[in-house]
């Protein structure tokens, strides 16, 4: 269990290093071109996801996401007693990853987002779609071709940065941690709660649909 928790913490930390670090670099180098910055951010995040899922999947299952852990628990494929330790490790790792990204770019370690406002019905619905889609590729991949799951998740999130209005957070730990970064990847802390609520709603909706679709 210690090894699994460590894997979830380290993996989620690297995920946020990828998300926030590439966001900072992209914003610095894109000279105000938001589309170019988002493209760089999406590609770096997808590359990081492929790497950490491939290397840590055999250790902990490579959830790196409380929504994914909850979805596995609902399916009876993850012990309920292990849900809380996983979620704590994921949130802790996500926050440490944000702080590490700040340190790498010589920014204040402790900060909160003040500029990236993400709210409204469209973005809330977008998070339902983004999270449902993530679960769709995970459980569809596991059902039909398990060795492709790292690629499926990486490609899905890379694309979902572009086809969702929220840029596809799809992860409560990521959402919480990005509230602690006043950078390109940030989210205003007051808008975190509704994103997380929508992500959890998507888990229960996904459980109802996907257990039947991939029976």
Automatic annotation (TrEMBL):
<dbReference type="InterPro" id="IPR023271">
    <property type="entry name" value="Aquaporin-like"/>
</dbReference>
<dbReference type="InterPro" id="IPR000425">
    <property type="entry name" value="MIP"/>
</dbReference>
<feature type="transmembrane region" description="Helical">
    <location>
        <begin position="121"/>
        <end position="142"/>
    </location>
</feature>
<dbReference type="GO" id="GO:0015267">
    <property type="term" value="F:channel activity"/>
</dbReference>
<feature type="transmembrane region" description="Helical">
    <location>
        <begin position="32"/>
        <end position="53"/>
    </location>
</feature>
<keyword id="KW-0812">Transmembrane</keyword>
<dbReference type="Pfam" id="PF00230">
    <property type="entry name" value="MIP"/>
</dbReference>
<feature type="transmembrane region" description="Helical">
    <location>
        <begin position="83"/>
        <end position="101"/>
    </location>
</feature>
<protein>
    <submittedName>
        <fullName>Aquaporin family protein</fullName>
    </submittedName>
</protein>
<comment type="similarity">
    <text>Belongs to the MIP/aquaporin (TC 1.A.8) family.</text>
</comment>
<keyword id="KW-0813">Transport</keyword>
<dbReference type="InterPro" id="IPR034294">
    <property type="entry name" value="Aquaporin_transptr"/>
</dbReference>
<dbReference type="InterPro" id="IPR022357">
    <property type="entry name" value="MIP_CS"/>
</dbReference>
<dbReference type="GO" id="GO:0016020">
    <property type="term" value="C:membrane"/>
</dbReference>
<keyword id="KW-0472">Membrane</keyword>
<feature type="transmembrane region" description="Helical">
    <location>
        <begin position="190"/>
        <end position="210"/>
    </location>
</feature>
<feature type="transmembrane region" description="Helical">
    <location>
        <begin position="149"/>
        <end position="170"/>
    </location>
</feature>
<keyword id="KW-1133">Transmembrane helix</keyword>
<feature type="transmembrane region" description="Helical">
    <location>
        <begin position="7"/>
        <end position="26"/>
    </location>
</feature>
């Amino acid at each position: 269990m210690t090894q699994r928790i460590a894997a979830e913490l380290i993996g989620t930390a690297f995920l946020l290093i990828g998300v926030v670090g590439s966001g900072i670099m992209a914003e610095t180098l894109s000279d105000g071109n938001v589309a170019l910055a988002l493209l760089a951010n999406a590609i770096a995040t997808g590359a990081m996801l492929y790497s950490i899922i491939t290397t840590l999947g055999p250790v902990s299952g490579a959830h790196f996401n409380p929504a994914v852990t909850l979805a596995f628990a609902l399916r009876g494929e993850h012990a309920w007693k292990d849900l809380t330790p996983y979620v704590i490790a994921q949130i802790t790792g996500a926050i440490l990853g944000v702080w590490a990204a700040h340190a790498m770019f010589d920014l204040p370690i402790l900060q909160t987002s003040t500029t990236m406002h993400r709210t409204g019905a469209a973005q809330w619905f977008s998070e339902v779609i983004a999270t449902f889609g993530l679960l769709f590729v995970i459980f569809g991949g596991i059902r039909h071709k398990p060795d492709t799951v790292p690629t499926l998740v990486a490609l899905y999130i890379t694309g979902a940065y572009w086809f969702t209005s929220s840029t596809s957070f799809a992860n409560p730990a990521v959402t919480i941690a990005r509230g602690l970064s006043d950078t390109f990847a940030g989210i205003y802390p007051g808008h975190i709660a509704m994103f997380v609520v929508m992500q959890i709603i998507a888990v229960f909706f996904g459980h109802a649909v996907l257990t039947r679709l991939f029976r």
